[in-house]
Amino acid sequence: MTGSQDRFTLYQMVNNYASPNQDPARLDRIFSALADPSRRAMLARLEAEESLSVSDLARPLPIKLPAVMKHLDVLAGAGLIRRDKSGRTVSVRLAAQPMEEAMGWLSRYERFWSDRLDRLTAVAEEMEAAR
Amino acid sequence: MSDTSLTIVRRMRASPDTVFAALIRPELIARWWGPDDGPVLLSEADARVGGAFRVRFRMLDDSEHESVGTYLEVAAPTRLAMTWRWIGRPDPESLLEFDLRPIAGGTELTLTHSRLPDAGERDGHRLGWSGALDKLERLIAARSTAGEGTDHAA
Questions:
Q1: What is the pLDDT of residue A96?
Q2: Which candidate among A69, A73, B88, B120 keeps its CA 20 to 30 Å from the CA of B27?
Q3: CA atoms B142, B143, B145, B146: torsion sign
Q4: H/E/C letters for each residue in chain B?
Q5: Distance between CA atoms of A117 and A123, rounded to whole angstroms?
């Protein structure tokens, strides 16, 4: 893949996180949320774990807890994470939306290819009969 | 679960050679690609590794749709693999694979449509987060220098 192809695909990937009724500013929020190394480090850790408490997430980072909380606000604002409070613990996880997007993608294409393959079958069988 | 993918199997009363021809010859692609009875307006298929695929059709509701791709593997009459995406839609570029197997009286065709995992990515269950962050960083750098990171497709 060329570099520009790579970047294009990635842009498409991020773009895909925005649901269709989202305002264009949503994508900008995602980009600015990702523009910070601490925030990217958090996402990378959440990628590997189902969910983490805020203090677990903060532990390896060279920043103080209030700063961590601010970063989490930015990530949540961009729709990239979810925070759930149970008692005094706040757990953080990657947002489920990417998975939901994936399911939507699957069902759209299932219909699409099913129809295409029906027609392909008809064409191939016609050709065969005419041989 | 690896990256998102969809598999459909079809059996048809036609030889693998015939089915393969229907998959790669532009005049034949034009006969099955449209989703309804609207016309296929353009059908280009240069079925060689690195060759381009482009199909445009109009549906009965007058909307037009175009998809493009690049052939990655062309092994008649058993296997065809290509990249694929819609022009003008936010779907990511994806991977299409057609595997053909001779069976009694015809061919069994297996279509697999999957997202292209990001280069260097092995754990795609989160749809491309892992390994993508470095590239995002470069993309963001590109956006801030070029003003806009929305490269168009090659």
A1: 65
A2: B88
A3: positive
A4: CCCCEEEEEEEECCCHHHHHHHHHCHHHHHHHCCCCCCCEEEEEECCCCCCEEEEEEECCCCCEEEEEEEEEEEECCCEEEEEEEECCCCCCCEEEEEEEEEECCEEEEEEEEEECCCCCCCCHHHCCCCCCHHHHHHHHHHHHHHCCCCCCCC
A5: 10
Which structure tokens are listed for B10? 């079809």
Backbone angles phi, psi at B94, to 5 degrees: -130, 175
Tell me the CA distances in angstroms from A28 to A33, B53, B93, one per residue in order: 8, 32, 21
For residue A9, pLDDT beyond 60: no
Residues of B in contact with A105 (CB under 8 A): 4, 91, 115
Residue B70 has pLDDT above 70, yes or no: yes
pTM beyond 0.85: no
Contact at CB, B138 and A35, closer than 8 angstroms: no
Question: Which of A10, A47, A116 is facing B32, going by the closest CB pair?
Answer: A116
C-alpha to C-alpha distance for A104 and B106, rounded to whole angstroms: 33
- Are B22 and A6 in contact (CB < 8 Å)? no
3-state secondary structure of A73: helix
